[in-house]
Target: Fumarate hydratase
Amino acid sequence: MSRILNTEIIISVIEKLVKKACYELDDNLMCSFRKAYDKEESKIGKETIKILIDNGEYAKKEQLACCHDTGTCIVIMEIGQHVCWEGKPLKDQVNQGVRQGYENGYLRKSMVADPLERINTNDNTPAILHTEIVDGDRVTITVMPKGGGSENMGTFKTLLPGDGIDGIKDFVLETVRRVGGNPCPPYIIGIGVGGTMDHCSWMAKKALLRPLGEFNAKPLYAQLEAELLEAVNNTGIGPLGMGGRITALGVHVDYYPCHITALPVAINFQCNASRHASEII
Model:
């Protein structure tokens, strides 16, 4: 049986999620910071992680942005196949929710209307909207503010099928060494393997939403995640690139079938301010 929703309902939800994501680092991330503090071996690394913990606690208490770069607003909507929409276009309502969230939340507006003309839209729209049709009659909305420092370090490469796991490892570690402290470590690395260029990049981005401490359900990829995490943390880049043991909090790999001629690999970094919030309507 169909469930009819007016698109106006999502405006207030997205406004709320924008503020929550920017103000409150989730418990999973804060717990990972504390574990990283215990594992960190360098003095400056421990001091840096302690500052990140204090900053996260203060931002939540005072309802302030945990980072001045409140990012490009990525909105992910998993829409049940039995949901029918009425009202104004969905994309317009999403952008209105983002607009209100950034304005009423006193969050920095970082979007330019044209990548070459560089004129700020002054309301942090448009959002990047992803939709997925799923079973049921519910809608799950996730807001993911993505800062420029980490997003700018992402990359993609089509490897040869024969490059295999070793080729993936080499590509990831070459990228990690090249970007150094620019993605604001300790970060999370999302890696997409397979699909096409667009889908591979999307898998890398979406993998960042997986809770820290969870591994891929397929043992082959879980092992790859564990080996890459160890290798990344052996680079010595450390918190904020100032040296130390903890460069990454997690490495999350997702995969998808691909063409016989290709082995696409995408890498997306998530800085230490891993911000996202979700709600089901």
